[in-house]
Amino acid sequence: MSKFKKSSNTQQDIPTAALPDIIFMLLFFFMVTTVMRETDIMVKQQLPRATQLTKIERKSLVSYIYIGEPKNTSLYGNEPKVQTNDNLVDVNDIVLFVNQEKDKLSEAERDKITMSMKVDVDVKMGIVSDVQQELREANALKVLYSSVRRADSN
Which of 83, 101, 107, 137 is least enclosed, having the fewest CB within 10 Å? Predict the structure, then answer.
């Protein structure tokens, strides 16, 4: 009988040839799926505090209106301004803004549009009620007032 020699050439190395491909696929995935801020806010925003908040289900149906003192007071003054998207607008232009936002949506979703008002704490109620009146004229009856959660002091 002959003697058989058992030879085992097992290696303990982990193959890393595909690792750069996997890393680049993950990088491209996160680059494509990440949503960056769409609006450059030009007014001061210190939102009021609230205790009972409701989270928005479909953010694609929400359009934002920012009201506050301009950050660049030397150019725009100290009076509160209304900002829609990236533009400071007059209160009378709210109807036009609402109609433009409705045109971006499909026919079935136009009645479901929600206008979210982000109003600075120090803004007087006069400009807010003017914007509310313009929203009524534009038939944008779902109005959301944005706030931040109050820290419970127990």
Answer: 107
Sign of CA pseudo-dihedral 98, 100, 103, 109? negative
CA–CA dist 63, 89 (Å, integer): 15
- Cα angle for residues 38, 62, 109 (degrees, 5° grid): 125
CA distances from 92 to 10, 31, 46, 48 (A): 78, 39, 24, 25
Total domains in the fold of the chain: 1
- 82 domain residue, yes or no: yes
Sheet (strand 143-145) strand order: 87-89, 81-84, 62-68, 114-119, 143-145
Residue 55 backbone phi and psi in degrees, to 5: -80, 145
Say if pTM beats, i.e. exceeds, 0.85.
no
Q: Where are the alpha helices (DSSP H) in the chain?
A: 19-33, 73-76, 94-103, 125-137
20 inside domain: no
Q: Determine the longest span between alpha carbons in the chain, in angstroms.
A: 106
pLDDT along the chain (154 residues), means of 10: 67 78 90 76 77 76 90 86 89 92 88 88 90 92 80 52
* 4 within a domain of the structure (yes/no): no
